[in-house]
Structures are given as C-alpha cells and as structure tokens.
Amino acid sequence: MPVYNPPLRDMQFVMHEVLNVCDDFRAMPAHAEVDADTINAVLEEGGKFAAQVVFPLNIGGDTEGCQLDQATHEVKTPTGFKQAYKQYVEAGWAALSCDPAFGGQGLPLVVNQCMYEMLNSANQAWTMYPGLTHGAYAALHTHGTDEQKATYLHKMSSGEWTGSMCLTEPHCGTDLGLMRTKAEPQPDGTYRITGNKIFISAGEHDMAENIIHLVLARLPDAPPGIKGVSLFIVPKFHVKADGSLGERNGIYCAGLEHKMGIHGNATAQLVLEGAVGTLVGQPNKGMQGMFVMMNAARLGVGNQSLGLTEVAYQNALAYAKDRIQMRSLSGAKDKSQPADPIIVHPDVRKMLLTAKAYAEGGRALAVFCSVLLEKVHHHPDEKVRKDSDDMLSLLTPIVKAFLTDNAWTATTMCQQVFGGHGYIKEWGMEQFVRDARINMIYEGTNTIQSLDLLGRKVLGNNGATLKKFGRLVAALVEEEGVNEKMAEFINPLAVLGEQINKFTTEIGFKGLQNPDEVGAAAVDYLRVAGHLVLGYFWARMAQTAQRAIASGNTDPFYPAKLQTARFYFAKLFPETATLMRTARAGAKVLMDTDLALA
Description:
Elements: H1 8-18, H2 21-26, H3 36-54, H4 58-64, E1 67-69, E2 74-76, H5 81-90, H6 109-143, H7 146-158, E3 161-166, E4 182-185, E5 191-201, E6 210-217, E7 230-235, E8 237-239, E9 245-248, E10 251-256, E11 267-280, H8 286-322, H9 346-378, H10 382-417, H11 429-438, H12 446-458, H13 464-480, H14 487-513, H15 516-550, H16 557-572, H17 575-584, H18 588-591
Parallel strand pairs: 3-6
Antiparallel strand pairs: 1-2, 4-5, 5-11, 6-7, 7-11, 8-9, 10-11
C-alpha cells in the first residue's frame, strides 16, 4: 500500500530560509503579525489531516468512483469522501486564507498553497472539490456586487457551499468565443440561462449542501466571439433573502464522464434549462471575472502536479530501498542479502532524483508565486503590486505547464522504479500516473500555456517582464559569481540567462515574418523558460544550503539539498540546449507536411 509523509521540513526550508516569506509579510498590514511558528503549526496539523484523513481514501475512491442517479440527477461521491469533507469544514481548513470580512481566517496564501500541496499528494480527486471553490470565491470577491458577496462568500469561505467553473461546451473548449449557452434577461433583473456544459469538475456531488456555479453565457444582443461572453452566478439551489436554501435551480447533471484518472471527482455534463442566474460584472465582460478563476485554477493545477510528484517520489524511494534485484555493477553492497536493493543502480537513482529535483524546485516556485499573489492583493506600495502582478502573469503559464509536464515525467519514472509492480493497482503508482495526465490538459492545454507565455507574456511586451525576472537571475549571479563553491550552479544559470535574450529576439523576428514560427517554437520555449526559473530557485536553495553548512550546521538536510541541486544542473538543466535547437528548426518542417499528413 502507498505511503505519504508531509514534506514539512522542506516547506519550512523554502519559506523561512530561502524566501524569508515573513519578511515580505511584515510589509503588509494584513499579515504583519504572522510569524514562522504560526505558519509551521498550522501546516503541521494540515499535514496530519492530509495524511491521516484524506490519503487513505485515495485508492478506494479511484476504484469506486462517483455514481449518478439518472432519475434525480444527484451524484454520490466515493465512500468516505463526504465524511472527510465534513471534517475539513468543521476544522476550518476551507477558511485558511479567505477574507476575515467573510468569515475567513485571513492567513497568508502561502499557508493555503502548502496545505493544498499536501492535500493533492494525499488525494487529488477529493481535493478538487474544495479546490475549485477557492477560484470561484476569488472571482466573486474581485468582481461580485456587495449583495452577491454577502449572499455567497460567507458560505464559500466556510466550505459549506462549494463552487465550480462552467466554461467548456461539447463543440468548444478553450475557444470560448464559440460558446452557445444563452442568457435571457428577466424583468426582475435575473437571467434565464439555457445550454450545455461538459467536463465540469466537481459539477455535481453530495459533499456540500449547495454548489455555486460560475457560468459563461451569451446575452441576446452580445457581439460575436469572446467579446460577447458574460459571467453569471447559477446556484444549484436558489438562495432566499435570509440565506436559507430554496427550490432546486434549473441546472442538473445529465451524465458523468468516464475518464482515465481522477475517478473520485465528479466530472459532470451539466444541462441548464432556464436556470436562474445573476450577472457578475458588466455585460459582455465575463472573461474579466472568469480569468480570475482561471488563473487561480492554473496555479492550482500546477500545485496538483507538484503534490503528485512528491507522493510518487516518496513511494518510489521507499520501494527502491527495500526491493532487492541483481548486484551493483561496482560490487555487492549488501552481502547479507542474495541481491542488492535496486537503489544502488545508477538509472534507478536518476529516476528518483529527477522526481525529487522537480518536486523541490517546483515547491520553491509555487511558494514564490503565492507570495507574489499576496503582494498583488495586500502590499501598500502600488509599484510593488504592479511589479508582482507582472511577474505572476509571466510565471503562471510556467507553473501550469512546466510543473505538469515534469509531473508526468516524474510519476512515470517512479512507476518505472517499481517495475511490474508499478503497473498493478494495489501499489498506487499507476493511479498517480493516470491522475497526473489530466493536469497537462485542463485549464488550457500546455500548448496553449506555451502560446500564452511566448506570444502574450514575452513578445507581447517586447520581453519587458522576462527582463524583470532576468534581473533576479543577474543579481544572484553577481552576488555569487566569484564563489567557487557555487560555480557549478551559477555558471550554467548565467549562461542560459544570456542565451534566452538572444533566443527570444530571434523567435520574435521570425514571428513577425510568419506567425506560425511562434506556434512552432512555443512549447520548447516554455520548457527553456521553465528551466531558467527552476534553475534560479535551485541556485538559491544551493546558496542557502552552502551558507548553513559554512555556519557550522551539521544537519544532513543541507548536503542532501546540494546533492540534489548538483544532479539538477548536471542532468536536467542541459535539456535547454536541445530545446533551443529544436525551436530554431522552425515552422517549415511542421507546416510543409500536407503530403505526410494526407
């Protein structure tokens, strides 16, 4: 059976030793009193909930799946899911980083980030139910009216009500300008919404008493395309003036998708037949509100893959230490056994270290982004808010695509460590692989994230935001450039920092002549940028570890961190050379292929 131990020590290292998050919080009145001890204590308890309550439901939930009653359109979640969610709500986990004005605890987003990493390791399918609620909450908190906030946010903060995002339709996925769901204005100021939505995660379930759907639809006079999309609140049950629940609304589940993974989450086909909704924001400006939820979801999906990378690594490591098979090529390592444990073999170590490097590097990036988001919302300096927003905009597609690509690689490698047992359900590894696969697809496929990064976030402002991140890299290189002990980490980072500017300019010029050049290079480009970002954080982690060792700290955690950093820069980071070469191969070898694809 699989195991999971919350990586609290590594979280503390990233938060308090590398990024010093509490220093940032002291500049924000909302969090000025938050200290490391408070964060650590909350996450210690959160880790217990993830490991002891949610994790044991993972394999059973995958096996049982969700059940739809076709007569009532109600969905029953797997055994134990509802009870675990009740504990989650009662313990206050839903409210961790929500606004105290709406019943939240007001803790920094980094606490929620780390809590959700642990929950995703424990059980991604279960975690999606409360996870999607945070995105819906954020959209309403930003764009809702005072009346809408008063009606919905207290219950969403507490977790008593959950949320969903309803975008995709049978004929349109990411191209939301093609959607057909219609919203008819009513004399009382509400709207009657009719249409079909598919692939709606947590779209129907029995875990909460109400589900607050955020639905994209078109008004009768809407202009064509994406500029004619509006956003509506469509609750599963109507909410009365006193906050109690009324009749069932005209939105119901017509079917559940039969999927490769995340079987414990109800991925619903929703039918709206004159469902009553209220407009969020301005008519035909629905994407403004939905993008709040979508960007939160993109960061959340990266976090899902981070969680899966960590738990897959932990299980593969434990297995590699226990499973004996053959002798070490350099001579027997355990003569008391008829064979050596497979962890002595170089390629097994390569697979384990790949997962470890992607998990620990991804964790640093995710925590950094949560602090940026905090600054966007709470920092008193307008320039800091703007710079943080720009940086977060650049990093969001990297978190979503790079971390999810890496998780697919890592979970597959960890499955490989198990050999034939990795293909057998009871060990849990094949589920991690199946669950990880969706993260590369939903919330905008990774190719779309790559186009967003290169086309909008980099070329769209002539590389201005990329240069801001480049200045972080340059500052670290300048600080450690003459430190011989840091050379193996700093030198490759410095080289890539210089190369990426030329690389970006080259693609930009080619794209001006032929836009397909951008499309042909985008996926490779995102991975190059991802390694620049991850390399920066691995260099900072190596710097922190070196300083701890130099100060006399004998904790083996620090030399272990250096060993992983050394592996990352030697074995994973050099991928960038190949990626830049394939990106430069251009569009012709892809687009001049009509005969090949006839």
